[in-house]
Amino acid sequence: MMNIQRLLGLASESTNVSRRSFLKLTAAGTAGLTLGVTFSSSSAIAQATADAMEFNAFVSISPDNTVKVLIKHLEMGQGVYTGLATCIAEELDAAWSQVVCEHAPANTEKYANLLMGQQGTGGSTAIANSFMQMRQAGAAAKAMLVSAAAAQWSVPASEISVRDGVVSHGSRSATFGELAVAASQQPAPDVNALVLKTPAEFRLIGRDDTLRKDTGKHNGTAIYTQDVKLPGMLTAVVAHSPRFGGKVRSFDATEALARKGVVNVFQIDTGVVVVANDYWSATKGRELLKVEWDDSAAETRSTNTILQQYRELVDTEGAVAASEGNAASTLSAAGEVEELVFEFPYLAHAQMEPMNCVAKVDGNSAEMWYGCQSATGDQAAIAQLLGTGIENVKINTVFAGGGFGRRANPASDYVLESVRIAQQVPGVPVKLVWSREDDMQGGYYRPAYAHKLTAALGSDGKPTAIQIRVAGQSIMAGTSMAAMMMVNGIDITSVEGLSDLSYEIPERQVELHSPTNGVPVQWWRSVGHTHTAFSKEVFIDALARKAGADPVQYRLDLLQNNPRETAVLKLAAEKAEWGTKVLPAGWGRGVAVHTSFGSTVAEIVDVSVTGNTFKVERVVAVIDCGIAVNPNVVRAQVESAIAYGLSAALADEVTLTDGNVDQTNFHTYRVLRMDAMPEVETHIIASTNPPSGVGEPGTPPIAPAVANALAAITGQTLTRLPLKLA
Amino acid sequence: MAYQLTINGQTHEVDVEGDMPLLWVVRDHLNFTGTKFGCGVAQCGACTMQVDGVATRTCVLTVANAVGRNITTIEGLQSPQSRAVQAAWVQLQVPQCGYCQSGQVMSATALLEQNAEPTDAEIEAAMSGNICRCGTYSRIKAGIHMAAAQLKNTGGAA
Predict the structure, then answer these.
(1) What is the pLDDT of residues B48-106, one digit of tens each?
(2) Which domains can be identified in chain B, with CATH numbers?
(3) CB of B113 within 8 Å of any CB in chain A?
(4) CA distance A272 to A290
(5) The pLDDT value given to residue A242
(6) What average pLDDT does the structure give for chain A?
(7) CATH fold of the domain at A303-347+444-714
(8) Which pLDDT does position A667 carry in this prediction?
(9) DSSP string, A380-428
(10) A348 to chain B: nearest residue by CA?
(11) pTM of whole model > 0.90?
């Protein structure tokens, strides 16, 4: 079960499983050409002498000495350009300044995520799955440069050295650019024979001062989907049903068509489309549309009703997701019991660039331009829609203005919407643009959940048995991934972090209810851990308080067989001066630790409380993510993950009234702004283990750490997100 | 209707409806795409340009009201403050996804043009209209302090 999770890269696993998976991956990497690195023959290349010489699927070198690296993952801010290029440049011994990055095209055979088995970005796997593959691609290209130099200089290859983009032998030297043409015609080396560097030999990996490769973001020159310009391009907006599942009954486009700039109005399965010469004209045209909606199949309930159902569900037995001993009987016989019920709202991703996609359909072929996160899935979905093969679907990937999970949609929702629109204007590129309101009200939210945690306590105040019940929609059910991610009806991602509870509790039972409703749901930065870490860490803190124990020591006592969480928690306590630092009056301090996506993060939070308002002042974070390929990017991701999770802890919440989404834009969905951002201090555990996740693992601990800090100073145990003091 | 706009020191003539926001005139008709669309209701700051030297949300400023004003987009930044801000952004590796950063740079530049040495509180007051979902706020704040210090050390040159 865990290996399937890992393959898909969408869910976490225990530390031990993670290590095993990595060993397996590493073994596969060294065992042979199972990496999708299809080293090209030089025949096709020889003709293009003026252009970049292709060494393999990932590395090209130009006579002008530029090393171009193709990045198989989507750069959406997580730093994947920099991380993957670092691994290649390390083994290639290129100078960092000569390396440029470009998104790879959609091509599953060449560019699959090795942990997913398909081309896609997610589950914090970008570096983890590429670490060996990128290094081998760099080493292979270097071997070809060395072979070419050896031939030119008539010296043994073994006597040649390479450093900072220069190949040398004695007094002779040549740049990569000078050798590019000859080197690209060398036979591709045997990957098995490549000797990679030991961590002690790394010159780029682990360095803190290399600049990111996703450049142009400080001066407006970086290109996102929103910026794509093509000759003759039109812009489309769609009037969607206000309620999920509503359909168009009828529409009148008379006035919309009269608006200057509007080119066409037509219906597709997701709504009524207005195509115009520019975005503003399309939007004004949409305002003039008259649409009658058929709500007969629409979701018309309110979130209050839905959550009431969930609260009732956690009082009943669910499907068993994990079981050890007989927790139920121990609980019913227990003298001392603690019980808390938790509630989590729907959450929008609210990435800064609202969903958008450019498509051009010509007959049965399509060309796409967008921040493509699921190349294999999107390409297949488009091909199926057009009744063609994937070879007729070309995807050009550009930077994404944030994603946080939203752009990897199992139904390829916004992508197929853009293709359906483009089908109506053949041969013309059309940019589909969602407004902020379309985006925020468009669903595919982090699901709402209720949890109930009940523990029996021993005479020492430690839990002897725990029962955990989770109720909420499955994000996998009904998707193409359900077959792999659901076992006996259990969506692994609904209970991850609880079903593999890190705390040692002799008897435990985890049960799941997966009710269905009409609200579309999807993963959101750190997936199930967004809610499971909260209930787990707030509950364990409540148990510690009940026992009169120190929250850090209480956790350490229950983590004696988990050296990794123990080490991370201890370092966080040391760095934050836990138990020794004197806080200002009115301040409280809380802790949380959680493992997700193969990495462990502990966060210690200081809050200041005034009346029933509070501010998060400072966060000390410690992460163990194996080798930190680029420590500065790792720290940036931890800062980012904390900000993203803190936003949800403080205010984010999507609510429905009679099926209508109440929030429309940033004045009603109140995301974190600078004035609420705490000081963040991040420490990285020194490690020679293979890299594990970085983009997501910083998110789960922040909300419970804040709640625990508030409990410490106010005595209030907050079990509902967003957090509100009484 | 035809409108004449002064953008980055150049005169541009556009033929659009008068209710079109300056953001969309600049992006869709003049093809300067550095300024971003984030919310359309002056809540996120991604569309920030300088209008007569003031950081302005151009998703709600109509083209009719932009006539006769001195408009600067991210593409037209030239002041020492803007150069110091951009250099600090690179040095501190501020951007992540980067989509909000044009707006952040415009707001930070306008702040330093008005206030050579802003305090943390003044930075928060000036910058809290610019949302960053990647949460680069700490680095933005540090970047503004770094730019201010650099300008001070060089007597206002960047």
Answers:
(1) 999 999 999 999 999 999 999 999 999 999 999 999 999 999 999 999 999 999 999 99
(2) 2-76 (3.10.20.30), 80-153 (1.10.150.120)
(3) no
(4) 10
(5) 97
(6) 93
(7) Aldehyde Oxidoreductase; domain 4 (3.30.365)
(8) 98
(9) HHHHHHHTS-GGGEEEEE-B-S--TTTT--TT-HHHHHHHHHHHTSTTS
(10) B133
(11) yes
CATH of the domain spanning A225-296+355-433, picked from 3.40.630.30, 3.40.640.10, 3.90.1150.10, 3.30.365.10:
3.30.365.10
> Is there a common fold for A225-296+355-433 and A303-347+444-714?
yes
The ipTM (two decimal places) reads 0.98
User: Does the pLDDT value for residue A704 go beyond 70?
Assistant: yes
pLDDT (tens digit per residue) in A346-375 = 999 999 999 999 999 999 999 999 999 999
pLDDT of residue A18: 35
CA-wise closest residue to A434 among A518, A350, A367: A350
Of B123, B128, B131, which is closest to A352 when you measure between CB atoms?
B131
Query: Three-state SS for A8?
Result: helix
Between CA A619 and CA A589 the distance in angstroms is 10
Task: Pick the residue from chain A with its C-alpha nearest to B139.
Answer: A636
Q: Do A352 and B132 make contact, defined as CB atoms within 8 angstroms?
A: yes
Chain B interface mutation, best of A208, A209, A224, A352, highest count of B Cβ atoms under 10 Å: A352
Shortest CA gap B54–chain A (Å)? 19
Measure B155 CA to nearest chain A CA, in Å.
Answer: 23
Domain A32-201 belongs to what architecture? Answer: 2-Layer Sandwich (3.30)
Domains of chain A by residue range? 32-201, 225-296+355-433, 303-347+444-714
Q: Identify each DSSP E strand in A182-327 by its residue range.
A: 234-239, 247-252, 262-268, 271-276, 290-294, 319-324
pLDDT at residue A192, as a whole number = 84
Residue linked to tokens 């193969």: A598
For residue A679, which residues of chain B lie inside 8 Å, CB to CB?
138
Query: B74 and chain A: CB distance < 8 Å anywhere?
Result: yes
The answer to whether the beta carbons of residues A609 and A680 sit under 8 Å apart is no
- Judging contacts by C-beta atoms under 8 Å, the chain A residues touching residue B125 are 675
Give the rounded percent of residues in chain A with a pLDDT score beyond 70: 93
pLDDT of residue B158: 62
